[in-house]
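Now for today's protein:

——
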Amino acid sequence: MRIMGYLTMLAAVASVHGQTSVAAPLSFEVASVNPAGSGPATVSMRTDQDRLHYSNVTLRDIVLNAYRVEEYQVAGPGFIDTARFEIAAKIPANTPREQVPLMLQTLLADRFKMALHREDREMQAYELVVAKGGPKLQPSEEALRISRGMGHVEANGITVANLASVLARIVNRPVSDMTAIAGSFRFKLDWAPESSQPNGVSPEPQLPSGAGPDPAIGATIFTAVQEQLGLKLEARKQRVQFLVIDHVEKMPTEN
C-alpha cells in the first residue's frame, strides 16, 4: 500500500508539472536594437549562420519577416513605415533557419511591446488573366532571375505564377494567376510609378468610357501589363487575413 501511495503521489506531481510547464519563447542570445541614423535610408537585411543584421529597417519590415506575410496584410500606426532601426542579434548555435522568424516575434514583443491579433478583412484584389490578343511572353530556359527597380521589372526563367507574386508586391494587393499558362518565360516591364503611393502604385483608376491614360503621365502598371505582356489585371473582392497591431512602442527598450 505504501508503494502504491508513493507511485500515486509521483504521478500527481508529474501531472501538475506537465500542466504548468510552458516552453519559453524562442529568442536571440543577445540583441542590440537602436534607432537608425539620419543618413541615406539604404535598407539591408542579412541573416548568416549565427548572426542577424538589419540596417535602416522599419517596424513593418521586421513584422513581414517575423510573420511571413505581405505588406498589404499588416495594419498598424503610421510610424511603422517611418521610424527606422539598426538590429544586430546573435542566433543560438545549431538553430534551424526557420526558427529565426519566431525569434523576431519575441524581439518585437520584448523590445517594442508589440501586441497584435489576426482578423479577416475584405479588400480589393486582382486576377491575372490573358488579355485580348493573347500573351506576349517569350519562352526562357534560363534559371529564375528577377531584377526590379522603380517602375521597372526584368525577369528570366519566370513562371506566370511567379509573375503574379511579383505583381502582388507592386500593386500591394493579392494577385491570383488565372491564366493557366505553363512554362517559363522572360520579359521586361516598364511603367510610370507614382512616388506618392506605396510601392509607386495606386489602385487601378476608374476612367470614363472611352478614355485612356494620360500620355503625359505614362503607362500605369495596369496598362503596362496589358500592352507589354498581353495579360490583364482584373479587379475583384477577396477576404484576406490581416495582422492588426493593437499596440507597439515607437522606441525600443534599452539594450
About this structure: The mean pLDDT is 86.
